[in-house]
Amino acid sequence: MANNTADHPPGNSVAEGNHDGDFGCKLMELRELMELRSAEAVAKLRDMYGDVQSVCRRLKTSPIEGLSGNPVDLEKRHAAFGKNFIPPKKPKTFLQLVWEALQDVTLIILEIAAIISLGLSFYHPQGNDICGQVSGGVEDEGEAQAGWIEGAAILFSVIIVVLVTAFNDWSKEKQFRGLQSRIEQEQKFTVIRNGQVIQIPVAEIVVGDIAQIKYGDLLPADGILIQGNDLKIDESSLTGESDQVRKSLEKDPMLLSGTHVMEGSGRMVVTAVGLNSQTGIIFTLLGAGGEEEEKKVKKGETVRKRFITSGKLHVLMGPARLIMSAVTVIILILYFVIDTFGVQGREWKAECTPIYIQYFVKFFIIGVTVLVVAVPEGLPLAVTISLAYSVKKMMKDNNLVRHLDACETMGNATAICSDKTGTLTMNRMTVVQAYVGDTHYKTVPEPEAIKPQTLELMVNSISINSAYTTKILPPEREGGLPRHVGNKTECALLGLVMDLKRDYQPIRDEVPEEKLYKVYTFNSSRKSMSTVLKNADGSGFRMYSKGASEIVLRKCSHILDAAGQPRAFKPKDRDEMVRKVIEPMACDGLRTICVATRDFVGAEPDWDNEADILNNLTCICVVGIEDPVRPEVPEAIAKCQKAGITVRMVTGDNINTARAIATKCGILLPGEDFLCLEGKEFNQQIRNDKGEVEQERLDKVWPKLRVLARSSPTDKHTLVKGIIDSTVGETRQVVAVTGDGTNDGPALKKADVGFAMGIAGTDVAKEASDIILTDDNFTSIVKAVMWGRNVYDSISKFLQFQLTVNVVAVIVAFTGACITQDSPLKAVQMLWVNLIMDTLASLALATEPPTEALLLRKPYGRDKPLISRTMMKNILGHAVYQLVVTFTLLFAGERFFNIDSGRNSPLHAPPSEHYTIIFNVFVMMQLFNEINARKIHGERNVFEGVYRNPIFCSVVLGTFALQIIIVQFGGKPFSCTALTLDQWLWCIFIGVAELLWGQFISAVPTHRLKFLKEAGHGITKEEIQQEEQTEDVDEIDHAEMELRRGQILWFRGLNRIQTQIKVVNAFRSSLYEGLEKPESRSSIHNFMSHPEFMPHAEEEVRVPTIEESSAEIELLPSTSASPSKGGGTPPDSSLHTRKPSM
């Protein structure tokens, strides 16, 4: 029989068997069976079990009723066949993370230096003056004995650094695992249990479940087909073959986990889950090479042209810091050698060697501290904290972020290409107009107004020729609206049946799915759905069809007249109907659907000859379906336009419908110069005579294009790629795209940020996306823009603050060391300053909540420099103030405060008030400059909204309290001595003056300071060609490797120093690569969509085009259907139905 239905005996989930609680199929038998394909699989199935029904009986399940859902039964199945879950890789333990943090090169250098210093500090030569001014100035023997404290303090600081690094990595991994489990909970699949069609989490599927599969699904387990309609599967994720495989009971009933349903619908019995499924077996094999897998940088990931902020941090401090620290050490050693052995004329005595080595070690430690403060290694931490914080908050705004970097990229978006149905509209469709029996009804007609035979035909056609999973259920609460389940367009038609005082369910009960003789499911080339029934008397067949009105009417040769009798329907009648009925409906923003029928008498026709079958139809009626615009959308689009973002609507609907909706939404504004094109016309304008897309032609179209109607997913992908690759205009475009269907995959992948619909979206669309909109609402995209801009600004604030500290600390340490033979800031003090400017500052500045004001400025675009001229002005301005203050205190502080000078003090000398004041003032200036750093666009009020960020307030107050403790009680380990109240007040006053100085800097017009340069540019136009050439190159991103090791705290080691000589592509690949991708393989459901299993992004794969959304009835003219390029991403439709329809 044409629709592949297996005969089934009555049965239930606890069918009797001779196996006493055991099952008639062994785990290994089923595993071996699922490894076979095509005829071989059919033969083996027949030999081992007979048929699918026997498999169901042995598994104690009913093909119709499914399992009973009894917990005891489910537990037995778990025990016998396993759970549908692939265990995630074990997280690293805290001790492993500690060990990884200890691998940092700079830390190792510090540890060695500290150990040498510690060992040598216990050596005291005989005689006071024998080794020169070694112990001079030491007030008592006790102080000299305390020389070990500095080495011990450095070691202790290193331990703290390592523990904080490890804790950060541990908490980060925990957070991402939480995100992973949240994503997995979102994944549900339709099964039949106890006769009820229900959705359960993928992990709860068991062997023996009867699963309903439909267009757009990603199969979560292996199974054998019980009944199928026109089923085609993309098995490229397992086999690498891009051709779709037709599945049927006779030829190939084996369905495998991780494969995509590209067409049709059906039911299958689940035979293998979790590690026993084909996906699980491959995963088990891969598991052996887990370590290598982790080290390998995945090919194809570089194709995603992300430009996360630190990727723009272009050789900001380059090799200068390494040179500076080396020069510091060399100058200190030369100065000491010349002064000791030249000026003082001393001899090198054997017993003095340990003392001299102590000096050299001290100089070496000073050099390392210069290096420590010169590296802005807090940047990746700031990026991570900012993104992780934003991702958590964005969940509350209905944005489920799958790729961390997409969050920040969204802040720079300049264009959004949005679907219409469900995103801009409510996706609650209702029939509001109808054309039946030569009459155009502006409202739904009364049943009495329609001839009984016409009404009967219409009700039967709609009830039978729609997915049986599409239903209208009673409202959840009294007074509410009925619930629409499944395809929304079909729900509207079923709603019409109910408005006509009829019920569709008795008709479906009379003609169950098994009696459907042949089903032509909705796909991109048909743009319609048809169902064939065999007449009860066996005399022939009747076919019901429905689809986009222009498409179906073209195939109609008759139409039912006012008397309910068919009359001839000629091309001129059709043109008149389009003009008088369809266009007026479309101009009211309605989608038009035609319902038709055809009878076949005599010999059975060739059902595979679709051109003949889907022809000579008789039109029953044409209906106009309304999908109201979401009330909040016009305001959201207005916000986007104010924020400098162009919104374009890309839909498969009629151009008049699209234009009407776009006007209601505010996408089309009166008096604006814009284009509204159909897909066919769009292709004519952008393609040359050979049919190739030309960028120059596309550049003439896209800037004014606002509505692309009748578009195929190929058109959508072409438009997105063209806008991204375009170099016209001041800045390169950053494009966000929304999609819900399987075939939206290529466009979602190509876009800088792909948004998939959480409710209407297919699994395939969600896999291809970066962010899932859990409420399918356009307003959520606006919130994503706000959060993205906030992330970008947060990182810029942190950079402004940190680079100021870097510049000042390096110059102070370098100059101070060279002139006074000692760094004014000691090693342990430097580590504390580093803690302030890295972990604490990134916590404080990277967690600022967003404000609506972020939407009032234009987007930065793709090539905006990370450090603007205003920021450069702030960095240099504050650095000048801090340097002047620090050097004044260093060389004249003792006179100002009337204390002893701390300069040129000997080895192991006690801490001086002089250097304590310098350290304290330095920290106070950083603390108050942190408040200045909250604003990066030259705003005057730096305290605005500070109370809304409790983390910032806590960090600043906490740092201040810790500084008091360190200075007053830190003693020798921190090289501090307690200060008086007067001295404290002066330190605080100098710090507060930072705020006043900040006001002065913001008053200086930036445009007057011609010498200021920007830094950290993005991709320039010249680099575009080069960028495209590298798409296929297996490129290793060094900063990503750093992240994978989890070392994103203070000392970034020589590897980092070397790699930053080139452009630091810090997060160019998705940040998740280093931070456990949220779609990590712990879920069997999404395991097969990993890059290793997908065809390479640039391979040509034949993808049938399908309209923008299968929840919409796409009304594309057949001429626009063309094969689409784009990775292994399959065609698409987001039906929630068993049979893809419309």
TrEMBL record:
<keyword id="KW-0597">Phosphoprotein</keyword>
<feature type="transmembrane region" description="Helical">
    <location>
        <begin position="105"/>
        <end position="125"/>
    </location>
</feature>
<keyword id="KW-1003">Cell membrane</keyword>
<keyword id="KW-0106">Calcium</keyword>
<feature type="transmembrane region" description="Helical">
    <location>
        <begin position="798"/>
        <end position="819"/>
    </location>
</feature>
<dbReference type="InterPro" id="IPR023214">
    <property type="entry name" value="HAD_sf"/>
</dbReference>
<keyword id="KW-0067">ATP-binding</keyword>
<keyword id="KW-0812">Transmembrane</keyword>
<keyword id="KW-0112">Calmodulin-binding</keyword>
<feature type="transmembrane region" description="Helical">
    <location>
        <begin position="951"/>
        <end position="971"/>
    </location>
</feature>
<dbReference type="Pfam" id="PF13246">
    <property type="entry name" value="Cation_ATPase"/>
</dbReference>
<dbReference type="Pfam" id="PF12424">
    <property type="entry name" value="ATP_Ca_trans_C"/>
</dbReference>
<dbReference type="GO" id="GO:0030165">
    <property type="term" value="F:PDZ domain binding"/>
</dbReference>
<dbReference type="GO" id="GO:0005524">
    <property type="term" value="F:ATP binding"/>
</dbReference>
<dbReference type="GO" id="GO:0046872">
    <property type="term" value="F:metal ion binding"/>
</dbReference>
<keyword id="KW-0109">Calcium transport</keyword>
<feature type="transmembrane region" description="Helical">
    <location>
        <begin position="913"/>
        <end position="931"/>
    </location>
</feature>
<dbReference type="InterPro" id="IPR018303">
    <property type="entry name" value="ATPase_P-typ_P_site"/>
</dbReference>
<keyword id="KW-0406">Ion transport</keyword>
<dbReference type="InterPro" id="IPR036412">
    <property type="entry name" value="HAD-like_sf"/>
</dbReference>
<feature type="transmembrane region" description="Helical">
    <location>
        <begin position="145"/>
        <end position="167"/>
    </location>
</feature>
<keyword id="KW-0813">Transport</keyword>
<keyword id="KW-0460">Magnesium</keyword>
<dbReference type="GO" id="GO:0005388">
    <property type="term" value="F:P-type calcium transporter activity"/>
</dbReference>
<keyword id="KW-0472">Membrane</keyword>
<dbReference type="InterPro" id="IPR023299">
    <property type="entry name" value="ATPase_P-typ_cyto_dom_N"/>
</dbReference>
<dbReference type="GO" id="GO:0016887">
    <property type="term" value="F:ATP hydrolysis activity"/>
</dbReference>
<keyword id="KW-0479">Metal-binding</keyword>
<protein>
    <recommendedName>
        <fullName>Calcium-transporting ATPase</fullName>
        <ecNumber>7.2.2.10</ecNumber>
    </recommendedName>
</protein>
<dbReference type="InterPro" id="IPR004014">
    <property type="entry name" value="ATPase_P-typ_cation-transptr_N"/>
</dbReference>
<feature type="transmembrane region" description="Helical">
    <location>
        <begin position="875"/>
        <end position="893"/>
    </location>
</feature>
<dbReference type="Pfam" id="PF00122">
    <property type="entry name" value="E1-E2_ATPase"/>
</dbReference>
<comment type="function">
    <text>Catalyzes the hydrolysis of ATP coupled with the transport of calcium.</text>
</comment>
<dbReference type="InterPro" id="IPR022141">
    <property type="entry name" value="ATP_Ca_trans_C"/>
</dbReference>
<keyword id="KW-0547">Nucleotide-binding</keyword>
<dbReference type="InterPro" id="IPR059000">
    <property type="entry name" value="ATPase_P-type_domA"/>
</dbReference>
<keyword id="KW-1133">Transmembrane helix</keyword>
<feature type="transmembrane region" description="Helical">
    <location>
        <begin position="363"/>
        <end position="389"/>
    </location>
</feature>
<comment type="similarity">
    <text>Belongs to the cation transport ATPase (P-type) (TC 3.A.3) family. Type IIB subfamily.</text>
</comment>
<feature type="domain" description="Cation-transporting P-type ATPase N-terminal">
    <location>
        <begin position="46"/>
        <end position="122"/>
    </location>
</feature>
<dbReference type="InterPro" id="IPR023298">
    <property type="entry name" value="ATPase_P-typ_TM_dom_sf"/>
</dbReference>
<dbReference type="InterPro" id="IPR006408">
    <property type="entry name" value="P-type_ATPase_IIB"/>
</dbReference>
